[in-house]
Write a structure and sequence with these properties.
heterotrimer; A mainly alpha; B alpha+beta; C alpha/beta; B: alpha+beta; Dipeptide-binding Protein, domain 1; D-Maltodextrin-Binding Protein, domain 2; Dipeptide-binding Protein, domain 3; 3 domains; 7-stranded mixed β-sheet; 23 strands; C: alpha/beta; Rossmann fold; 2 domains; 8-stranded mixed β-sheet; 4-stranded antiparallel β-sheet; 11 helices
Chain lengths: 354, 643, 336
């Protein structure tokens, strides 16, 4: 009897302990949970807004499809609309909030959104098919422009050669004053048309018999270049600002006094320290490229996600559009998380402290 | 900014160098460009030994699906791979017989005999049930005139037309030819769905005589809610069905491969017209943006491009590439503005008439498309040369012409109670007039919209421009109640449906314009209540009643009702015709042979002469448009490679 | 007395866009081998600039306009620092003269471990040697040397070597810097305010350490400070700078005894000492000179209690006493 009492008490104590531990865990990580909560609310708002805005536009999927039927079959618009409703099984007049709810239920099953037109096309399949292309060009462009940008930025801050600096400053002004799609057109005109060195559109050419990787790179060259031209200058400016402040630091002068040659100072002292603030920036930019660059993709007819997104918006295929946007916002919000944590890996000051 | 100032000089230098490079490039291209003409076309050898045709096209990038009616679009493959019983050549009288060998009309029936040598791409012969089944699954305009389609044997079937709405014999050919992709549902694959659809259709009641939609009821059946739902289920299953194997098609080209941006078609050696089919392969590039498309064209990377760009662009393309020729092709359509009759301002017939005089139509045409022909009519729902063809000369002359005369317009407006103060017009209630114009962004609409705005501004009326991304959006924005548009720029007449006035009226009354214009609707039957004067002045008639039966008329009766609809509508001044539109086609002379008017492009490769119905060369030029003929120009030897 | 470095009539200007700022004007200074020489002056007096000129690493846009910095590297060998090319200069730096910077806390690269910073310097200097003499420094060899130096400055070598600068306290970093300055066996170490921002106990410890370095290793030191009491306690020679000019130079004993220059006198009298009554403290009146707007004549005259008419018009010459003591003041011009 006594024994049972004891066990009971012990059990109670254990329970209390467990609870307090769980509570402590949540309390300790409360900032994490808070941020996570804010992120989720952000995503929900993004979805809600895009959904409502799309539904509020006067055209809808039925109109677009009816137009196609009119052209294909020569029937009247009214009949085409009736037919479209039957064929698509989608009622544009249904309650918007019910549609949204259905969408969210679908989301819970891992389906980001099914196309109204094509039953076997989902946002998942669109992303799976087109994201690799977008990532391919955007990631290369980001990487190249980042590396070039930090190089240029540190060179400008170092101020060793006035001629070089003049050139770089002019480059930055010129390249950032002209938007990337215009550069795209110029490059296309010069290298695609006049000189004919690069293909004018697409991501690959199944007929030219080149190895796949070479062919992909060959097709990616111009779109990547036009993005690099513009992005490099913004990285260079960021880097210059950061590098100028590093140059004022004592340890750079100290390194010089130690007889460390300039090239090592630039590489190990200046660049490495000045790059730190840019690391968060690059993580965020990396998240942003998942949305694709619609203008560049459309100029080069590059089969990326951005161009697809605009196509689906044009077709008012709400569920796919919202699905892709949902995916992009999740990635961007995730990238922000990563940016925070990545910083501690590259900067020992943050690493050991936390 | 301080930094900027310090390097100002350098920047100026840099920009200067950039400009110099670009200038040099421009000069370079200007230098290498050749003369206006092209010689040796008929005599010298071409550059297309491999017999490849390179064109642009669009298709569903996520995948073209496994059959025509699956919902995805196979684009160029549909054009070159799929066909119907016959193909009408848009804007000409010609009908090319394809899967059908003949149509035999007898009373209210038509017997169709299929070709013996027509095969599906998978090798199966084309049989009657393939066509019948497709009609029962895919209702089109022809099926609203049919009572039934029944199989006689494998190669023959009988169409019974509705007794109360029997199309005239000439109209039957058009209706049958309008089913351009009827060869898309082979019975040996879709048997299950075809049988279900036929069974469902036969089980339905006849459409009651009192029904307001009796004339458009498919197979004369009562497609009420339940029937529609049942049909919808069959259709959805049919649509979702995935064909295992070759994409069902019968046409001259087979699908070899496709990616997101490329499609390759190869000649179907078993095709019944394989002997006259010149190109071995068709390589399609996904349609790029206009700027890139023009550059690819100038770089000689495509052999055929549809359309007429702005004059300056067209000329520069022809200048950059000395092997290109551009034909102007009539598209049996008129461009102009449509009034939104819901708006109070248009209630006054004097105001509507006044607006006919406001616009310098010549100027509008020259800005938007200088190759077109100015029209001086008010909106007549049929383009001028088509009206000239279908109307007796007496009736055609009844179409009033309105020339640019702003003082006349001002006079009329004052008569309507309007007044001008501080250079701006006020309506009869003393409110300043400001109009909203809806249009589709792009060529030629944007240029037209700005000119219209400028002309009205000079006249004293403020115009707010509202552009949309596509005709679908324009239609949707226009047709909602209380639309913001006061008037819209669009086709005031268009007939893509072959040589019959019915096509033009279809565009007007059942497809686009009437809906955008908010033509008043009769509550009791749901159709437009518009009543017009007969052309001969002998009374009035309800436009809808005549329109609905337009395919049943023939001969002089057809000409009579057409005149009634055209002249009667034009009198209302419900819109303004600006010009009869002209589209066009680019061809690369190095790679494409047998093109017409060779004697002209040895002088100037920009062929600006317009040919009308009676001209000898008219049909030859019209047939150059891929979309007017579908693949028939290529399969019948009209267009061949130049090797 | 053997001089390890002789600075002669050095003029240093900061070249700005519109004008040049003369921070140091005609300074001549001898640094005796194996001794501690203190360079005393207020902030802005130009002492850091003079010290930087020894390594020719005056922060941009400053540069040596005239004068020489001679480093006696051997019995008959003299290196003229300002004439060295980039490579030779880099080789000279740290090997011949090293420096403990003001605010040693921030003189270390924050993202590299202490060991790697030491190692990098060793490797870099090894690479300056002619190819035939060059050998690969292994990490083990480097570690041995670094461990010895860190032990010498009383640091826990195991911990410190793998640490990043921010993981060490201010005093530890200062000691790391001292160890660092000894790395290549230089004959002279410049110490720029080595104890600012440190607490008194640590300060004392650091100076004891420096004294140890000076005595045991025979390394000469140039101690830049504004703290007269430190000078009195540790230095052998002292030089007093004011407004970019060297005002007085001599042994510490002589300077403190005679206080020739009115500025030196002011400095010494304004410094509290244990054996002095605080009431006797006489701070120097007025403000330090503005480099942009230097007074004519003797730069000290506006604050000088013994100012004469001539002081306002022309600058005094440097007067060398019999003892070798040097003073730049009109009061003593006649004596020479």
């Amino acid at each position: 009897m006594e024994n049972t009492e004891k066990t009971k008490a012990g059990f109670k104590e254990l329970l209390v302990q467990t609870w307090s531990r769980i509570a402590k865990f949540f309390w300790d990580s409360r900032f994490f949970w808070k941020r996570l909560g804010i992120a989720i609310v952000n995503i929900l708002f993004a979805v809600l807004l895009t959904f409502l805005v799309l539904t509020l536009t006067p055209t809808n999927a039925i109109d677009s499809y009816a137009q196609t039927l009119v052209e294909q079959r020569g029937i009247s618009l009214d009949e085409a609309r009736k037919l479209a409703v039957e064929i698509l099984g989608y009622d544009p007049n249904a309650n918007v909030f019910k549609q949204l709810w259905d969408y969210i239920v679908n989301l819970a099953h891992g389906n980001l959104g099914t196309s109204i037109y094509l039953k076997d096309v989902t946002a998942n399949s669109v992303i799976a098919q087109f994201l690799p292309y977008t990532l391919f060009i955007s990631a290369i462009a980001l990487l190249v422009s980042f590396l070039l940008g930090i190089n240029m930025g540190s060179n400008m801050a170092w101020k060793k050669s006035p001629a070089k600096e003049t050139f770089l400053t002019s480059y930055i002004v010129t390249s950032s004053a002209v938007p990337d799609y215009l550069w795209g057109l110029i490059l296309l005109y010069v290298f695609g048309c006049s000189l004919g060195w690069f293909p004018l559109n697409g991501a690959r050419d199944i007929t030219n018999g080149l190895p796949v990787v070479i062919d992909l790179l060959w097709h990616a060259a111009l779109p990547v270049l036009s993005m690099v031209i513009v992005q490099t200058s913004s990285w260079a400016l960021l880097m210059r600002g950061s590098a100028v402040s590093v140059l004022g630091e004592d340890y750079v002068n100290a390194a010089r006094a130690r007889g460390i040659p300039n090239r090592i100072i630039v590489r190990k002292y200046l660049r490495r320290n000045a790059m730190l603030p840019l690391v968060t920036q690059i993580a965020i930019s990396f998240g942003a490229i998942f949305g694709g660059s619609t203008l560049i993709e459309s100029i080069f007819s590059y089969p990326g996600l951005g161009l697809q997104l605009s196509t689906y918006i044009g077709a008012r295929d709400y569920f796919v559009v919202v699905g892709i946007l949902f995916f992009t916002s999740v990635i961007i919000i995730f990238a922000n998380f990563v940016a925070d944590s990545v910083y501690s890996f590259v900067d020992p000051r943050v690493r050991r402290d936390s | 900014m301080k930094v900027l100032y310090g390097y100002k000089k350098a920047i100026v230098k840099f920009v200067g160098v950039m400009l110099a490079i670009m200038l040099a490039l421009t000069c370079f291209t200007a230098c290498v460009s050749t003369e206006k003409g092209y010689s040796g076309y008929g005599t010298d050898a071409g550059k297309n030994q491999s017999k490849v045709l390179r064109i642009f096209g669009t298709w569903t990038k996520t995948g073209i699906g496994t059959h025509y009616n699956c919902g995805a679009d196979a684009g160029p493959f549909v054009i070159f791979g799929l066909e119907g019983l016959a193909q009408y050549v848009r804007t000409t009288d010609e009908i090319v017989m394809l899967l059908a060998e003949s149509f035999t009309h007898e009373g209210n029936t038509t017997k169709v005999k299929l070709r013996d040598d027509a095969y599906w791409h998978d090798g199966e012969p084309v049989v009657s049930m393939d066509i019948i089944g497709c009609w029962y699954l895919n209702h089109d305009e022809a099926t609203s005139y049919m009572e039934s389609v029944t199989e006689i044997d494998d190669k023959n079937f009988l169409i019974t037309w509705k007794s109360y709405l029997t199309p005239a014999e000439s109209a039957r050919d058009i209706l049958l030819a309008q089913a351009t992709k009827i060869g898309s549902t082979p019975y040996h694959i879709f048997k299950e769905f075809v049988d279900e659809a036929i069974e469902l259709t036969n089980s339905l009641e006849q459409c009651p005589e009192t029904s307001t939609s009796r004339n458009s009821s498919y197979f004369d059946k009562n497609w009420n809610g339940d029937a529609a739902t049942a049909f919808g289920e069959i259709y959805t299953a049919y649509r979702a069905y995935e064909v295992d194997g070759v994409y069902p098609a019968t046409g001259p080209y087979k699908l070899e491969s496709y990616t997101e941006t490329q499609m390759t078609l190869v000649k179907n050696e078993n095709y019944y017209l394989a002997d006259t089919c010149g190109f071995e392969r068709i390589e399609v590039t996904y349609q790029p943006t206009a700027a890139v498309a023009n550059q690819m064209l100038a770089a000689g990377q495509v052999d055929y491009v549809d359309g007429t760009p702005l004059q300056s662009v067209l000329e520069s393309i022809l200048q950059q590439n000395g092997s290109l020729v551009h034909y102007k092709i009539l598209d049996q359509g008129t461009v102009g503005c449509l009034f939104n009759l819901e708006k109070e301002i248009w209630a006054s017939d004097i105001v509507r008439e006044a607006f006919q005089y406001v616009f310098d139509r010549e100027l509008i045409k020259n800005t938007a498309n200088p190759y077109a022909a100015t029209s001086w009519h008010s909106m007549s729902t049929m383009c001028s040369y088509e009206a000239e063809k279908w109307l007796d000369p007496d009736d055609y002359d009844k179409l009033a012409e309105y020339y640019y005369d702003q003082s006349k317009a001002a006079e009329l407006l004052e008569q309507a109670g309007w007044s001008k103060a501080d250079g701006a017009w006020q309506d009869e209630n003393g409110n300043k007039v400001s109009l909203t114009l809806g249009y589709v962004e792009g060529t030629p609409w944007t240029a037209m919209a700005t000119t219209v705005q400028a002309l009205l501004k000079s006249f004293g009326i403020e115009v707010i421009l509202k552009s949309t991304e596509s005709p679908t959006t324009l239609l949707a924005n226009a047709r909602i109640t209380d639309s913001e548009y006061d008037f819209m720029l669009y086709f005031t007449a268009l007939n893509p449906w072959g040589s019959h006035p019915g096509g033009a009226f279809k565009h007007m009354y059942s497809q686009m314009d009437a809906a955008m214009m908010h033509l008043p609707v009769n509550e009791s039957d749901g159709h437009y209540s518009l009543v017009l004067n007969k052309a001969d002045g002998s009374g009035t008639f309800r436009a809808w009643d005549v329109f609905e039966r337009i395919y049943t008329y023939s001969g002089s009766r057809l000409r009579e009702v057409t005149a009634d609809l055209v002249v009667g509508f034009a009198e209302m001044n419900y819109g303004i015709d600006f010009y009869d539109n002209v589209t066009g086609s680019f061809f690369n002379l190095d790679t494409v042979g047998n093109l017409p008017l060779q004697e002209l492009f040895s002088e100037d490769r920009n062929i600006t002469t317009l040919y009308y119905y009676n001209d000898a060369d008219y049909d030859n030029v019209q047939k150059l448009n891929l979309y007017y003929t579908q693949a028939t120009s290529y399969s019948t030897g009209v267009i061949i490679p130049r090797g | 007395m053997e001089n390890i470095v002789e600075i002669r009539d050095i003029v240093i200007e900061y070249k700005l866009k519109k004008y040049a700022l003369r921070a140091v004007d005609g300074v001549s200074l001898d640094i005796a081998a194996g001794k501690i020489t203190a360079l005393v002056g207020e902030s802005g007096s130009g002492k850091t600039t003079v010290a930087s000129s020894l390594l020719n690493c005056i922060s941009s846009p400053g540069e040596i306009v005239s004068g020489t910095v001679r480093r006696h590297t051997g019995p008959n060998e003299v290196t003229e620092v300002e004439k060295l090319g980039e490579n030779a200069l880099n080789e000279f730096r740290w090997k011949q003269i090293s420096m403990v910077f003001q605010g040693a806390q921030s003189a270390l690269n924050p993202v590299v471990t202490i060991f790697n910073q030491f190692y990098e310097t060793m490797v870099v200097h090894e690479n300056y040697k002619p190819k035939s003499e060059r050998k690969k420094i292994t990490k083990q060899e480097a570690e041995q040397r670094i461990r010895y130096l860190l032990d010498f400055v009383n640091l826990d070598a195991d911990r410190v070597m793998t640490s990043y600068p921010h993981e060490l306290s201010g005093g530890m970093k200062q000691r790391v810097m001292i160890a660092f300055s000894l790395l290549l066996d230089p004959k002279l170490i410049i110490l720029d305010e080595p104890t600012t921002a440190l607490d008194v106990i640590t300060q004392d410890f650091i100076f004891k350490l420096l004294q140890k370095v000076n005595r045991e290793m025979g390394i000469a030191m140039l101690l830049l400070t504004h703290d007269i009491s430190v000078v009195a306690k540790y230095a052998d020679y002292m030089a007093v700078m004011y407004g970019g000019r060297l005002m007085e130079y001599g042994t510490v004993e002589e300077v403190f005894e005679h206080k020739y220059h009115p500025y030196t006198r002011g400095l010494i009298d304004s410094t509290p000492a244990i054996n002095k009554d605080v009431g006797l403290l006489r701070p120097i009146g007025g403000e330090p000179p503005d480099l942009l707007n230097m007074p004519a004549g003797c730069k000290f005259h506006p604050r000088c209690p013994q100012c004469k008419e001539i002081c306002k018009q022309s600058e005094p010459k440097t007067v060398t006493m019999e003892t070798g003591h040097r003073v730049k003041c009109f009061l003593y011009e006649d004596e020479a």
